[in-house]
């Protein structure tokens, strides 16, 4: 593994850990805020039900059809509140609440002498007949759940009288449930209790649904599992500032590691692709014969330069004609090699034409140094033959204190080159531009 690869993997790993942590934190907050918002929707729906039930009319029993959906204590109730529509509405609203949704089991409104459950189950008739034989239905619930009959003197707000009980197995149906008891008060005195029964798995299902929507892998923590009643009570009953809102939620180490691994592979893959694309781009911009950059990449660039040399092999056509094109190629390649050997890493060489090259000198360079470099190029070629051929070059150069566009520098160098060629070749002509 190369150093660069190892570095990329380490960096990808660190970035992935940060991304996964951030993702989980953001979504944990999102889950808790979704939980709280929907708890408040439940409160809201119950409040509306309360108002509606206070304003509902009374209907007579037993002649009314309503009796089918009502459990009446010893047939004593002669008049009951007509709550069918409101309780059906409440049931429908709770059914689409993401916290409860398909886990909604029963909604029941309990009055002293009658109970209106939705859905109506035959098992409830026996249950109420047996358990509530001695007392009226409401009294029994208030006693069992320790709910205040009157608000006055209790020091509690209406919301704080809510009770959450569970999990327990419901007699008759054998369903494992949580029950939320919501007492309804009129002028501070309780007149009814609304009971919402949900299957015990509701909170777990809420988290699973969230996972499906948000691609998270949250699980209920043991802490949450043991305190579902408290969590629901605190969210429903307490004032915002008193609420310790929130599910603690956990994530498994296995899934966390998997997420980090996938993330690392993706980031590292992107890095490798970027390196590959860059290499492809660089390689495709290199001239194969000389190893210099190709001219096309620089034609469009609005590059600024100060000093450049334009180098042209003398009588190259003759070399081609006498020794052949292949030898001509060898000469081009060797001339390029020799130029390259006298360049600094900051300098840049471009094959500008067939046997014409441009060398751009970057960084600080005095005129004297520049002139020495140009003359050095001349002698590095003419000092030693190439394939037993005496090869010379001519150079036209521009030396400038200030920067100018590459195209402009090239034109000036071309004029200088013309002078070198006209004055016998194997020469350097430098224009100074101040
Ligand atoms: N072998 C070879 N020849 C090339 C290549 N590219 C261009 N040439 C040839 O280079 C020659 C350039 O000749 P000219 O432009 O007339 O210049 P010259 O003969 O060098 O004469 P001066 O520049 O005036 O000294 C042409 O014959 C081109 O065919 C190449 O890649 N390989």
Structure description:
The protein is of the alpha+beta class. Helix content is 47%, strand content 22%. The strands form 4 sheets. A 6-stranded antiparallel beta sheet has the order 2-5-4-8-7-6, sandwiched between helices. The protein has a 6-stranded mixed beta sheet with strand order 11-13-14-12-15-16. Helix 1 (3-54) runs antiparallel to helix 2 (84-95) and helix 10 crosses helix 11 (325-341). The longest helix is centred in the N-terminal third of the chain and has 52 residues, at 3-54. It is rod-shaped and about 130 Å long. The two termini are 51 Å apart. The mean pLDDT is 89. Residues 289, 312-317, 320, 325, 328-329, 332, 354-355, 421 line the site of guanosine-5'-triphosphate. Guanosine-5'-triphosphate binds at residues 289, 312-317, 320, 325, 328-329, 332, 354-355, 421.
Strand content: 15-25%
Tally of distinct domains: 2
Largest sheet report: 6 strands, antiparallel
- Biggest β-sheet: strands ordered side by side in the sheet: 2-5-4-8-7-6
- Spatial extent as radius of gyration: 44 Å
Give the helix proportion (percent range).
Answer: 40-55%
CATH superfamily of the largest domain: PAS domain
What is the terminal separation in angstroms?
51 Å
Gross morphology: rod-shaped
Structural class category:
alpha+beta
Count up the helices: 13
How many DSSP-defined strands? 16
CATH class of the largest domain: Alpha Beta
Query: Uncertain spans, ≥5 residues at pLDDT below 50?
Result: none
